[in-house]
Design brief:
Elements: E1 6-10, H1 15-26, E2 30-35, E3 50-53, H2 59-69, E4 73-76, H3 83-88, H4 90-110, E5 115-121, H5 144-162, E6 166-172, E7 174-176, H6 194-202, E8 209-212, E9 224-225, E10 227-229, H7 230-245, E11 251-255, E12 261-262, H8 263-274, E13 280-283, E14 292-293, H9 298-304, H10 313-331
Parallel strand pairs: 1-2, 1-4, 2-3, 4-5, 5-6, 6-11, 7-10, 8-13, 9-14
Antiparallel strand pairs: 9-12
Helix pairs in contact: 1-7, 2-4, 4-5, 6-8, 6-10, 8-10
This protein binds nicotinamide-adenine-dinucleotide and galactose-uridine-5'-diphosphate.
The site of galactose-uridine-5'-diphosphate (GDU) has 22 residues, from α6 and β8.
């Protein structure tokens, strides 16, 4: 009989998935990662985890992986995650976020695995009527990315009603920073995330970064987001999957700290951490950006007694920068 629980982490070679893999291993889980390396890196996967190179949207591959490893739980992080790209190429998002998830969910149910965690997003709320955003607010995504993720939430809701599978949907707000122990970080070669791009500017990979829009209906005109340290989020995955494996009911949770910073405020922290001049230029709005997204985080705090460890924008930027410096030194 197996004593240690085993988790399958899809997308475990990616930014968030590599942190989740470390958090599960530290909590005593065995981990098998499946990833097609479309945006992830094989080196990001902790050596103690098993690795399968494959597409979760391929039924033959995923059925074989589940049959071989027989995990107790599936944590589904694989997906495409760039909002502006989804506006330009929506079919890619419906294929890789919705259709591939459907295939994986079907394989999970057929394998008799009852615990499923899904990486959802604040983008399912679109432009919410008020702030902060609680889980019962209307879901009216304004981008194909958000809709592609919401479709998967609907599949999960209906499958959970019809089978013994239970799921937790974690609706991430803006994930940033890197492992404080320096083991992994955001390594995607083509970045669109603000803090990553700003750190690339600090290390000289770029000469400037853009502040995309200064005419939003916010106090300083720039967009407000709830930036959450990736290691706090990774710990939440362990908590949520242990809850499900122990028989917890299906739930959706917003994952954020419950307060936001504007892009201009982030730029100021970037300048402080850089300790010198950083060129941040006002640029036009980016398509698909709501003015403000801040989580009402009371539900997840209440359910799990969650106490974040890294709710500090400066620390988030410092860890992201340390990782960017490591990447640069490695490339040199
Ligand atoms: N980064 C954020 O701020 C954020 C916010 C909300 C939700 N999310 C969600 O979190 C998840 C992880 O995002 P991330 O920022 O780590 O992105 P990422 O691109 O670094 O990671 C995604 C991983 O999934 C893999 N992958 C993609 N499609 C696959 C497929 N069909 N089969 C197997 N592997 C596949 C990629 O190779 C990569 O390793 C995504 O589902 C994303 O939508 C991210
Ligand atoms: O070079 C840049 C990049 C971004 N921004 C701005 O910074 C803010 C944050 O943008 P990110 O690209 O870092 O993140 P998004 O808010 O677009 O999206 C992220 O957070 C969302 C929820 O808030 C979803 O979860 C999504 O998956 C995830 O990528 C936005 O106002 C954006 O316009 C800039 O000003 N300059």
């Amino acid at each position: 009989m197996r004593v240690r629980k085993k988790a399958m982490v899809t997308g475990g070679a990616g930014y968030i998935g590599s942190h989740v893999t470390w958090a599960l291993l530290e909590a005593g889980w065995d981990v098998v990662v499946i990833d097609d390396l479309s945006t992830g890196r094989r080196e990001s996967v902790a050596a103690a985890a098993a690795f399968i190179l494959g597409d979760v949207g391929e039924p033959v591959t995923i059925n074989a992986a589940l049959a071989e490893h027989r995990p107790d739980a599936v944590l589904h992080l694989a997906g495409s995650a760039i909002i502006p790209e989804s506006v330009i190429d929506p079919l890619k998002y419906y294929r890789n976020n919705t259709a591939a998830s459907r295939t994986l969910i079907e394989a999970t149910v057929n394998a008799g695995i009852d615990a499923f965690l899904f990486s959802s997003t604040a983008a399912i709320y679109g432009v919410p009527p008020r702030m902060p955003i609680d889980e019962d607010m209307p879901t009216q995504p304004i981008t194909p990315y958000g809709t592609s993720k919401l479709c998967t939430e609907f599949i999960l809701r209906d499958v959970a009603a019809a089978t013994s599978m239970r799921y937790v949907s974690l609706r991430y707000f803006n994930v940033a920073g890197a492992d404080p122990k320096g083991r992994t970080g955001q390594s995607t070669p083509i970045s669109t995330h603000l803090i990553k791009i700003a750190c690339e500017t600090i290390v000289g990979k770029r000469s400037f970064f853009n502040i995309c829009g200064d005419d939003y209906p916010t106090p300083d005109g720039t967009c407000i987001r709830d930036y959450l340290h990736v290691s706090d989020l990774a710990d939440l995955h362990v908590t949520a999957i242990e809850y499900l494996v122990a028989g917890g009911a299906s739930e959706a949770f917003n994952c954020g700290y419950g307060h936001g910073y504007s892009v201009a405020e982030v730029a100021n922290v970037i300048r402080q951490v850089a300790g010198g001049h950083i060129d941040a230029r006002i640029a036009p709005r980016r398509p698909g950006d709501p003015p403000q997204l801040v989580a009402d985080a009371r539900k997840i705090r209440r359910q799990f007694g969650w106490q974040p460890k890294y709710d500090d924008l400066r620390f988030i930027v410092e860890t992201a920068l340390a990782w960017e410096r490591w990447l640069q030194a490695r490339a040199a």
